[in-house]
Amino acid sequence: MVVSKLIDHTNLNPDARLEDIRKLCEEAKVYGFFSVCVNPAFVKAAKLCLEGSDVKVCTVVGFPLGASLPSIKAAEAAQAVADGADEVDMVQNISMAKEHDWKYIANEVYAVRKAIGKDITLKVILETCLLTDEEIAFSSRASCEGGADFVKTSTGFSKGGATVNAVKIMRSTVGPYIGVKASGGIHTYEELKALVKAGATRIGCSKSVPIMESLRQK
Hints:
Elements: E1 7-11, H1 18-31, E2 35-38, H2 43-49, E3 56-61, H3 70-83, E4 87-91, H4 94-98, H5 102-116, E5 121-125, H6 133-146, E6 150-152, H7 164-174, E7 179-183, H8 189-198, E8 202-205, H9 208-216
Parallel strand pairs: 1-2, 1-8, 2-3, 3-4, 4-5, 5-6, 6-7, 7-8
Helix pairs in contact: 3-5, 5-6, 6-7
């Protein structure tokens, strides 16, 4: 397992400055992370900073509440791709998931998929801490029906982050061909390893550098 290539090195802080994003990108190049994950306003800057490297640019849509209309999420995603995003992490409409309107979830995911095309990786953030186990499973299934490449646990801005239980449910629901991204509250290599063992194939993390440094010391 090449740990660095599992990681979306993340800074989605509302008060992040351009210098913070440049630092994020430089760290991603040094440690060989799969991508940086930044807010849409920083996609162009991140793309420029990463020019000539193999680090991808990931961004977020409908973040962090997921309450935007599907047409707004689709437009936001399309603009992000035009600005240089390689991957889009959209937040599902959590209220509609709580209403068990799975058709709505599938349709909004499809709207974003249609807006960005088939070559851009699309991840759907479920915000699992707000869902029952059954709702996690149904949200995962609806996301796949809409055309998601990954389902993702968390924004990191709600009352909880990634858990082994949520990842196991997501993996058992989507099967082996859809990615599962664990994000939110991952601080150590031990936590990362447990989530990968549960079925995660990507890790969203802002503590990526300390994790990598802890591995170097072993």
